[in-house]
């Protein structure tokens, strides 16, 4: 099977380093999966994600002019989440917002606004104090 950019192929982890893992592809070629291309999360220790001789699916990102192959495990994984936007029935949403009298809608709006403002002020105050909610907390720690 020829090695081409963009293809997803099977491989076996041949060697693990601090900066990534070398994966043996079919045909005897070896490519590098950089640490940033192993998972979507921060990786401190590659050994917690991969083991030598482990079979993995990799996507061939590119092959440079010197023949080095750059691979990605995270891009080879199937996208499980739907990338399609959520359908919203705007007519239904409009009808919901129009239910009740003007006074009811105004009172609901005022209540929601007050809650949002209180949450905003609470977050702003905690950031201003370096994460502490009261001035006394800082002195006690």
Automatic annotation (TrEMBL):
<dbReference type="GO" id="GO:0006412">
    <property type="term" value="P:translation"/>
</dbReference>
<dbReference type="InterPro" id="IPR003029">
    <property type="entry name" value="S1_domain"/>
</dbReference>
<dbReference type="GO" id="GO:0003735">
    <property type="term" value="F:structural constituent of ribosome"/>
</dbReference>
<dbReference type="Pfam" id="PF00575">
    <property type="entry name" value="S1"/>
</dbReference>
<dbReference type="GO" id="GO:0005737">
    <property type="term" value="C:cytoplasm"/>
</dbReference>
<feature type="region of interest" description="Disordered">
    <location>
        <begin position="117"/>
        <end position="141"/>
    </location>
</feature>
<dbReference type="InterPro" id="IPR012340">
    <property type="entry name" value="NA-bd_OB-fold"/>
</dbReference>
<dbReference type="InterPro" id="IPR050437">
    <property type="entry name" value="Ribos_protein_bS1-like"/>
</dbReference>
<feature type="domain" description="S1 motif">
    <location>
        <begin position="6"/>
        <end position="74"/>
    </location>
</feature>
<keyword id="KW-0689">Ribosomal protein</keyword>
<protein>
    <submittedName>
        <fullName>S1 RNA binding domain protein</fullName>
    </submittedName>
</protein>
<comment type="similarity">
    <text>Belongs to the bacterial ribosomal protein bS1 family.</text>
</comment>
<keyword id="KW-0687">Ribonucleoprotein</keyword>
<dbReference type="GO" id="GO:0005840">
    <property type="term" value="C:ribosome"/>
</dbReference>
<dbReference type="GO" id="GO:0003729">
    <property type="term" value="F:mRNA binding"/>
</dbReference>
<dbReference type="GO" id="GO:1990904">
    <property type="term" value="C:ribonucleoprotein complex"/>
</dbReference>
């Amino acid at each position: 099977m020829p090695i081409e950019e963009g293809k997803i192929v099977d491989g076996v982890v041949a060697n693990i380093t601090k900066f990534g893992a070398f994966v043996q592809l079919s045909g005897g070629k070896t490519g590098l999966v950089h640490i940033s291309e192993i998972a979507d999360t921060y990786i401190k220790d590659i050994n917690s994600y991969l083991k030598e001789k482990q079979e993995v699916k990799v996507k061939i990102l590119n092959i440079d002019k010197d023949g080095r192959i750059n691979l990605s495990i995270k891009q080879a994984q199937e996208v499980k989440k739907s990338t399609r936007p959520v359908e919203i029935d705007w007519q239904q949403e409009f009808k919901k917002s129009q239910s009740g009298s003007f006074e009811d809608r105004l009172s609901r709006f005022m209540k929601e606004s007050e809650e949002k403002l209180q949450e905003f002020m609470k977050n702003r105050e905690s950031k201003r104090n370096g994460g502490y909610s009261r001035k006394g907390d800082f002195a006690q720690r």
